[in-house]
Amino acid sequence: MRNLSERLDKYAIGLSAMCVIHCLFVPLLVALLPAFGATFLSDEAFHRWLLVGVLATSGSALFLGCKKHNQWRILGYGSAGIGVLFFAAFFAHDLMAEEGEKLLTILGSVLLVISHYKNFNLCQAGRCQ
Fold this sequence. Notes:
- The structure is a single chain.
- By secondary structure, the protein is an all-alpha fold.
- The protein has two domains: 1-38; 43-128, no CATH class.
- Helices cover 83% and strands 0% of the residues.
- It contains four helices and no strands.
- It has helices at residues 2-32, 44-69, 73-95, 98-124.
- The longest helix is centred in the N-terminal third of the chain and has 31 residues, at 2-32.
- It is elongated, with a radius of gyration of 16 Å.
């Protein structure tokens, strides 16, 4: 079980990093290569599918880790990050400028990365039973 939690933490960190990279570089690619804008990566649905992956890995990894080391505030940080990502993916596009949506996505991703990093370190330090 411990290995599963650690692997899920690593996957979730990777997915969160993908969110940040996507937000920062896709607009640049669309500006430099307009045909890139026609790919699925620039579609809003991509954000939502990426969020599904983040929800599955983050929820599982953080719950399994917190269940072992009893530092439940880490699950709270991760939940806040997921909430920010959810808001950015489903509502921010209509409520704010594109820059605001990107900042929210980056903020949510950073919160998730921090929570997974803490979760992973607690399990690595032997605080998981």
